[in-house]
Amino acid sequence: MNPETWAAHVTVAAIVERDGRFLLVEEHTDHGLRLNQPAGHLEAGETLAEAVVRETLEESAHPFTPEALVGVYMTHFERPAAAGVTYLRFTYCGSVGEAEAHRALDPDIVRTLWMSADELRACPERHRTPLVMRCIDDYLAGRRFPLDFVHTHSVGPTRSSKSGNP
What we know:
Blueprint: E1 9-18, E2 21-29, E3 32-36, E4 39-41, H1 48-60, E5 64-77, E6 85-96, E7 109-116, H2 117-121, H3 131-140
Parallel strand pairs: 1-6
Antiparallel strand pairs: 1-2, 1-4, 2-3, 2-7, 5-6
């Protein structure tokens, strides 16, 4: 692995609990159908909170309102004949509105479903990653950080070039 070209993939995920059940997506992966929280990659120009709102809507058709950051997780997956890939995942919890009935889900998403923690715990072989259960366990343990725990500094066109401060 060339350290000059290495970069972690930044992802976001949403934990939504309703009546003791969690919103999940079933999605096509290289390893077959897997369960995950609504999740995806941070895109250029958006904040982490904007990314989790967008990804939740795209994958579940539910508008998401983030309420807290549950945690930040790093994991590395080895890949045969490759350097592997590292993910840095920011997991938020919050609430969702009703699903937008006519909204198409992302192409890899088969369906959304609601499962209890025990139901999810009973099928780890179906989880997209071990982070699926870890994030729910952290949520159930009460781990919460305020949304302003993550600061986004943006440099706009009005920033003074005289400042010199990063």
